[in-house]
Amino acid sequence: MIPITRPFLGDEEAEAAAAAVRSGWVTQGPRVAEFESAVADYCGTEHAVAVSSGTAALHLALAGLGIGPGDEVICPSMSFVATANAICMTGAAPVFADVERRTYNLDPRSVEKMIGPATKAIMVVHQIGLPADLERFYAIGRRNGLEIVEDAACALGSGYRGRPIGGHCAVEGGSAAACFSFHPRKVITTGEGGMVVTDRPELADRLRRLRNHGMSVAAASRHGSREFVEPSYDELGFNYRMSDIQAAVGVEQMKRLDDILRRRRKLAARYDAALADHPWLCGPFIPEDVQTNYQSYAARLADEAPVRCDEVIARLRELDVAAGAGIMLAHREKPHHQRRGADKLTVSEEANERSLLLPLYPQMSEAEVEQVVDSLWKITK
Q1: Are 73 and 123 contacting, i.e. CB atoms less than 8 angstroms apart?
Q2: How many CB atoms lie within 10 A of CB 55?
Q3: With a threshold of 0.85, does the pTM exceed it?
Q4: Which of 4, 7, 53, 13 has the alpha carbon at shortest distance from 31?
């Protein structure tokens, strides 16, 4: 069975993790700082704050901005459930807006309709690595006094209007923060892990405290000082630290990133060519001003398709191709089915029912790629 994805790890990552173990410093320490620097440099931001997961990154960014009980944050339902969950973790309420038909990214027109007196932020998701139209959300934010937080869990290595995703935190009037995930399904991985990038020094400082129980002094500073340093805990924080073992893997993964992106884009181009004249399957729509990392390759059923997505997935699996269902809808899950906006998501529901994910990972052999392509045509007979 050809899987949906595989993490791309090698001897370099194994040795880096072992070296971190041998160093004796295995929690948040020098490797974490090195990984943060690598991500900040790549994105073009002043600050990067490593945490234990992508969900932790989202929660921490919102908490750092002071979002809490009584507040609302607009987001898509069409996203992994962590997007909405992270908002709830602050005590705020997610409000669902619909997505655009071609990109599956948040529709700015739908977002504007959902703004209310309690709205404090918009969480813009870059759907499976495809950048959303950030400038339109910045304009909405300016008009309504709202913060923009990017759920960039899948989007490391993608670009929007000439800047890498994450780098728009460095633009005047841009995002407050962008949040990445390093789960094994993502373009690079640390096993688990996440990162918040920002250009706001006060926000970065607060995030660093909050990830470590609100501690006023970082562990590295305490252990590196010849004098006793008594930390204080001036606000309620969290245990969202990344280990040095994870970060050591992340440093090596960042060295691979450009090669990973080239391979993913080459594979996606092969799928594009294969689907160009398919009778009822087509590839993703990519706007001209963005560059996607193809964290996943989302094919979609044409309106006239004679089969349902679940039937296509089942047929492909019979041919040893592990296609997967499209992006989930959070409002169909029990914790979120009564959220404001959940009854106005026509496009999201249609997109969910008509999309599926094809296998795509850098180690795919040419034979595996051709097996998937052949299978896409076999199922039409």
Answers
A1: yes
A2: 23
A3: yes
A4: 13
In degrees, rounded to 5, the angle at the alpha carbon of residue 56 between the alpha carbons of residues 19 and 137 is: 125
Q: Concatenate the DSSP letters of all residues of 124-192 into one string.
A: EE-GGG----HHHHHHHHHHHT-EEEEE-TT-TT-EETTEETTGGGGSTT--SEEEEE-STTSSS--SS
Q: What is the pLDDT of residue 216?
A: 87
**Distant-in-sequence, close-in-space partners of 329: CB < 8 Å, separation ≥ 6:** 77, 78, 345, 348, 349, 352
Q: Residue 323 half-sphere exposure, CB side, CA atoms within 13 Å? A: 28
**Torsion sign (Cα): 246, 130, 351, 343:** positive
Say whether 378 is catalytic: no
pLDDT band at 380 (very low <50, low <70, confident <90, very high): very high
State the DSSP code for 106.
B
**Residue 150 near residue 180, CB atoms below 8 Å:** no
Which CATH number describes the domain made up of 11-252?
3.40.640.10
Q: Of the listed 120, 186, 266, 344, which one is catalytic?
A: 186
Please say whether the beta carbons of 181 and 153 come within 8 A.
Answer: yes
The domain made up of 257-378 has a fold known as Aspartate Aminotransferase, domain 1 (3.90.1150)
With beta carbons less than 8 A apart as the criterion, state whether 312 and 379 touch: yes
Q: 237 with 90: CB under 8 angstroms?
A: no
Distance of CA 15 to the CA centre of its chain: 27
Q: Is 366 helix (H, G, I), strand (E, B) or coil?
A: helix
**Separation CA 248–CA 105 (nearest Å):** 33
Residue 221, pLDDT score:
55
Render 42-56 in DSSP notation, one character per residue: HHT-SEEEEES-HHH
pLDDT digit string (tens) for 111-130? 999 999 999 999 999 999 99
> HSE-up of 229 (CA within 13 Å, CB side)?
13
- Give the Cα separation of 221 and 348 in Å (integer): 47
Q: How is the chain split into domains, by residue range?
A: 11-252, 257-378
Query: How many CA atoms lie within 13 Å of 60's alpha carbon, on the beta-carbon side?
Result: 36
